[in-house]
Amino acid sequence: MKENPHIAKIAVFASGNGSNAENIIRYFNDPSSVHGGTAEVALVVCNRPEAPVLARAAALGVPAETITRAQLNDEAEFMRIMEKYGIDFIVLAGFLLMIPSFLITRYSGKIVNIHPSLLPRYGGKGMYGRHIHEAVVQAGERETGITVHHVSENCDEGAIIFQARVDLDTTDTPDDVERKIHTLESIHYPKIISTLVSGD
Question: Is 115 noted as a catalytic residue in this protein?
Fold first, then answer.
C-alpha cells in the first residue's frame, strides 16, 4: 500500500458481503487503476466476524478491524483505531450500526453512506438491503435507485449528495431490483467518493 501523505486515507465500514467495499478498494488501490491517486482505502471496519467483506479485504491487502457495538461507541477506544490508520474520510457500504455522534462531529462532512433507494422513500430504521427491494416491488414502483448522502445522527436523513435512477419492469422480482441497484452502485459510488475526497 502506498505511503503518500498527500493521499487521503479512507475507512470503509461494512457489515456484510462487501461487494461495494471491494469495488471501492479496487477503484482507489489498484496500481493499474486510472482513477486512483486521490485517496486509498487504508482500513475496513466490520462489526460481524463472519462477514465475507473481511475475506475480500484480506485478499486485496487492506487491513481490517472487527469491532463490537460497544467498541464503536467508546470514543477513546474507537478514535485510537481511526488515528492508528490515519483515517481522513469514512465511507459506509452496507454498515448496519448507527454511527455515534462523536464520530459524526470528528468527521464532520466526511462520512458518507449509500442507500439502495431514492431517499426519502424507503429509508429509516429496518430499511436496508433486500427489505428495501421487496418493499419497492410490493409497492409496484416503476423506478428506484440509489442515494449517496452525508451521515447525520438520524438514520438516512443526512443531506443528499447524489441520486441515480433506474426503471423497473412489472415483472421485476426483488432479485432483479437488487441486480439493477448493484449496477448503479458499482458505477457511481466510487466516482462520488473520489469527488468528495478531492474537494471537486
Answer: yes
